Amino acid sequence: MWESIKWLIPTVKVPTLTDGFVAIGILIVGLIIIRFIVRPFMMKFSSMFEKGHHPVLSDITKNIYPSLRSALIFSLVVIAMSLLVEVWLFNSPKLSVYIESVYVFFAFKALNDVLGFYLKNPERFETGKDQDILTPFFLRISKVGVMGIALFTIASLWNFNLNGFLTAIGLTGVALAFGIRDTLSHFFGGMSVALDKPFQIGDWVMSSDENIDGTVEDINLRSTLIQTSDKGLVYVPNSYLVNRPIYNLSKREQRKIEHYIFVSSENSEEAIVEFIETLREQIALHPKTLKSIIHVAMDELRPSACRIVIRYFVATNDTAMMLQIKQDILFVAKHYCEEHELQLVEPNQPQFVWHDSNH
Questions:
Q1: How far, in Å, CA of 152 to CA of 297, rounded?
Q2: Residue 257 near residue 312, CB atoms below 8 Å
Q3: Does 134 score more than 80 pLDDT?
Q4: Which of 27, 84, 95, 315 is the most exposed place for a label (fewest CB within 10 A)?
């Protein structure tokens, strides 16, 4: 048996029974040290980082331990075998490359385990309250990158020629890029949304063409899920969103309210002016209206009727509150129309239909 491995270890010696017991003893003692010293030590460090508000360091410590344990056990096996054959295997010309490859594998496996943990638990990696859709993406890319670097590193240790392989990968990448152009446009649209952060989950958004109007339910790299006002769910490709203006209505701190009152031209000028001034004063007295911008004026005149525009801003972004304020002002307008005996007319009467060029 031992003669058959002399091609690998030329100076190998037939081990004695004592050498066998020593090797086994080293393995047992080493496993005990790993189980009762190294493992508690690593878990203590992890707990210390967690208590010190360093969750990332705690997670890294926990997730590198399995690979560290495997590397230590492998080292114990190599040391035990070295004592068994009385040759230090770490310096063996033919075995050193294999041993180095195993250590490289365990090192990259530890890094891959950390990335895999955060891919399953991305909230542990994020420190802010906002969802970052790029985190899972970058973690997946990092995992692929780690596996690729590990493969190339191990291949270089064994002196493999990688030029042809890299050329093939390059040509394959070019062919794939032409075949998935639409997917790439959605992908880069998702990257743009993630980096610019024009909106977040829970925001009310509307596109400039008003085809999209609703609340953002989910964001990923390819599409955005939006719940419309009728509770329907729409998946919108990110390339569509980044190629047109998007209004984030949730970011508004003020909202404009604008409505019109149509009065007959038979009303006296004095009554109309008094109504306008009184209504302007009442709007300014409302606790939720902004006092800096209040417009109440007659902006259209026709032979049989005229239009009064009422425009003001409210310090709220809540739709229910905005409608309540609008209702308050309309009741006030109704009250003063009756007080000043203004005669209202229907806006859809034939003599009062016109095209407003200002809107």
A1: 76
A2: yes
A3: no
A4: 315
Task: For residue 161, give the 3-state DSSP assignment.
Answer: coil
φ, ψ for residue 227 (rounded to 5)? Answer: -95, 120
Instruction: For residues 203 and 192, give the distance between their C-alpha atoms in angstroms, rounded to a whole number.
Output: 17
Least confident span in 30-44, 133-147, 171-185, 301-315: 171-185
> Taking 50 as the threshold, does the pLDDT of residue 129 lie above it?
no
Residue with tokens 């609340």: 215
- Give the number of other Cβ atoms within 10 Å of residue 190's Cβ: 24
Q: Which two tokens stand for residue 257?
A: 């309210």
Element (H, E) at 137: helix 134-157
| Region of 341 on the Ramachandran plot (φ > 0 left; ψ -120 to 50 alpha; else beta) | left
In angstroms, how far is CA 305 from the centroid of its own chain? 55
Tell me which residue of 227, 229, 211 sits closest to 219, measured CA to CA.
227
DSSP 7-52: TT-TT--PPPHHHHHHHHHHHHHHHHHIIIIIHHHHHHHHHHHHHT
| CA 221/CA 189 separation, integer angstroms | 7
What's the full length of the chain, in residues? 359
* 224 backbone dihedrals φ, ψ, rounded to 5°: -125, 130
Alpha carbon of 55 to those of 50, 59, 60, 126, 137: distances in Å?
Answer: 5, 6, 9, 10, 21
Going by C-alpha positions, the residue among 255, 266, 260 that lies closest to residue 320 is: 255
Instruction: Name the strands in the sheet holding 223-228, side by side, starting at the edge strand that comes first in the sequence.
Output: 233-237, 223-228, 213-219, 204-207, 246-248
Strand partners, 246: 207
pTM (2 decimals)?
A: 0.57
DSSP letter for 214, please. Answer: E
